[in-house]
Amino acid sequence: MHITGRPAGWSVLAVVGGMSALGMAGLSFIADFAETRARRLHRKEEQ
User: Fold this and answer.
1) How much is the pTM?
2) Which of 13, 16, 23, 39 is 20 to 30 A from 3, alpha carbon to alpha carbon?
3) d(CA 27, CA 12)
4) CB atoms within 10 A of CB 11
């Protein structure tokens, strides 16, 4: 997975960066899901 013209560690950094970006996207998705669920529960309590 070595890209020509780049240092050997660059591809590792690219993979780690990509994985952390996916991790952040996953976390925001989970947070959004939890917030939506909490709103729904709150609406049920008001009725």
Assistant:
1) 0.53
2) 23
3) 22
4) 13
